[in-house]
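User: I'm curious whether this sequence folds into something compact or stays loose and floppy. Could you predict its structure so I can see for myself?
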Amino acid sequence: MIAISLKNLDVSYGTTKVVEGANFDVAEGESFALVGESGSGKSTILKAIAGLAPDWTGEISVLGERRGHGVDHAFATRCQMVFQDPYGSLHPRKSVDQVLSEPLKIHGLGNRDQRVEEMLAAVGLDRRFRYRYPHQLSGGQRQRVAIARALMLEPKVMLLDEPTSALDVSVQAEILNLLKKLRREQGLTYLMVTHNLPVVSFMCDRMAVMNKGRIVEIAPASALHDGSFSDPYTQSLYAASGGNPDRKD
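Assistant: Here's the prediction. I'll summarize afterward.
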């Protein structure tokens, strides 16, 4: 089954077209990356899928359901987004318990105590974190809470917008390993935005390379090991990364 399908997607901010003619499919259970330089339109695609960039044309489907414009509560049970900045994505005056319980309240779901504790355990946080506030958590702990919040409604598709770039290098690997574990255990599909080619190599099956709002190439992540890219822009990105991003010189 196709988890995410984009057909002829154009996204604009006012009169400025930021994404033009984006086409790709992500298979259920796949981890797919959008890569490219800043301003290439990567995060805008995620925002369009999530309903945060309403000025778009084309077709967006998630798990076989066409995506409309604007807020869609049913869509939230299928697809959730984890943002880049764990400091900005959590309400400073809400405890971890309130943050995690809120999606359940909005959707009228029960067993909140049990579900909150299960999700905390799933992201590697024990019960003592439940009544803490964001300022009492490290950056890595905040991102774990953000991931737990995204999983509260048991979605099968996760949109990951540079989920580790705002974290200390020492913490980034912990969060990437957690995401990889959750994908395996919960059968998740990932669409990940990143500029970090080693992250793509570690996390993803395929990648779409974007340049100035357009997808210029779709390639297997294994191409990062041998440089077998066809587009000149992709080849330049690969060369700028030093070739094989996993190589230790």
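Summary: Residues 2-195 form a domain with the Rossmann fold fold (CATH 3.40.50.300). The mean pLDDT is 92.
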